[in-house]
Write a structure and sequence with these properties.
alpha/beta; Aspartate Aminotransferase, domain 2; seven-stranded mixed β-sheet; 14 helices; globular
């Protein structure tokens, strides 16, 4: 009998880290493999967290399974203000990171053999979650500009389909899905009795101004929409594992069963830090967004030197550039060699596509958010000089 974990692949980021073992310390490795801040939270937040640890005894205790009431209320209020529409605290759950929010939604939605439509290139942890839950992943091919097509998704729906998943800005491509595309997927899911899961982990680094969509408009949005978010990227709280889900209150009652058996409650320190950040760091976060946008601009402006050698920039946004390389070798061979020979650690497209997918062999993901603008120039120098 095959175990649940044996049905899926090894964690890709951990595999990539092994490629860097034994590489000389000089010149320094450019690690663009993982989409996570490497700096600690800003000093004011660190001071607040220290105060929670030292002076707030509740920081060290169990809390409500669905999260601190104050944080749920803040998420509801700010979400309503950001997107328009009505969101109540009872429609918010706090989770131990956005990955747990996704697995909890999956557990509450799906049974053995049910299907979930997942656009390509996919976020590999979503695929892993499906495998371990006995859920069939139905790949939705990328459309022009790596934006999925609602019409193509409609043709994939079967009686076993339970949800369609969208990640925007996308991981791994960085592409920001247009509001009209999100609305069309929402209407498709609503009309076919499905859930639309929208993961906006990277929304704080969206290039557009204003609300990225209007999916919370209307009184019955929660009959269709399940919205996921992460505090990790916004406030550099990756190690504290704090995420959020916004969905219908009866659905969250099912989610609560899952969360209670996995983590019992999210970390109190992480939740208090997220709440403090939401209330006090808006201006700081706006500056972080501008810095990420500057790095994105550096990627776009520097890419023509690679394009002249046959590289293609397929998508760029938030933390990511998704590219096609010009070499005869497949990306899962190119990526380890880039680490050893060029000092660039990145992930191959084979980690974001079904096994054997013809486009995966040429694709690579660059998570550039931790490179400042001069380091982006160094990245291009190394990629330009690479000749396998």
């Amino acid at each position: 009998m095959t175990s649940r974990t044996a049905t899926t692949f090894a964690p890709p980021v951990m595999e990539a880290r092994r490629w860097a073992e034994g590489i000389p310390a000089e010149p320094p490795l450019l690690n663009v493999s993982q989409a996570a801040p490497v700096a600690p939270p800003p000093p004011p937040l660190l001071e607040a967290m220290a105060d929670f640890v030292l002076n707030d005894p509740a920081t060290h205790l169990y809390g409500p399974v669905l999260g601190l009431p104050e944080l749920r209320a803040e998420v509801a209020m700010q979400s309503a203000n950001r997107y328009g529409g009505q969101v109540s605290p009872a429609q918010v759950a706090i989770t131990s990171g956005c990955n747990e929010a996704y697995t909890a939604a999956l557990a509450a939605l799906c049974g053995e053999g049910d299907e979930v439509i997942l656009p390509l290139p996919w976020y590999f942890n979503h695929k892993m979650a499906h495998d371990m839950a006995g859920v069939t992943t139905v790949p939705l091919g990328p459309g022009p500009g790596l934006v999925p097509s609602p019409e193509e998704a409609a043709a994939l729906i079967t009686p076993r389909t339970r949800a369609i998943v969208l990640v925007t800005p996308n991981n791994p491509s960085g592409v920001e899905y247009p509001a009209a595309t999100l609305r069309a997927f929402y209407e498709l899911a609503r009309d076919r009795g499905l859930k639309l899961i929208v993961d906006e982990t990277y929304r704080d680094f969206h290039s557009g101004e204003g609300a990225p969509h209007d999916l919370f408009a209307g009184p019955d949005w929660d009959a269709t929409l399940i919205h996921l978010y992460s505090f990790s990227k916004a406030y550099r709280l990756t190690g504290h594992r704090v995420g959020a889900m916004i969905a219908a209150e009866p659905f969250l009652a099912e989610v609560e069963k899952y969360l209670d058996t996995v983590t019992i409650c999210p970390t109190q320190l992480g939740q208090k830090a997220a709440l403090w950040g939401m209330r006090n760091l808006a201006q700081w976060l706006a500056g972080e967004r501008l810095e990420i946008l500057a790095r994105r601009q550096a990627i776009e402006e520097g890419f023509p030197r690679l394009a002249a050698k046959g590289w293609q920039l397929l998508g760029c946004g938030a933390y990511f550039a998704y590219v096609a390389h010009p070499f005869d070798l497949p990306s899962n061979e190119i990526a380890p060699r880039l680490a050893r020979e060029a000092g660039v650690l990145l992930l191959p497209g084979t980690m974001f596509m079904p096994k054997g997918h013809p486009e995966a062999a040429r694709q690579l993901r660059i998570a550039f958010a931790n490179l400042d603008v001069p380091a982006v120039a160094t990245l291009f120098d190394r990629l330009d000089a690479f000749a396998p």
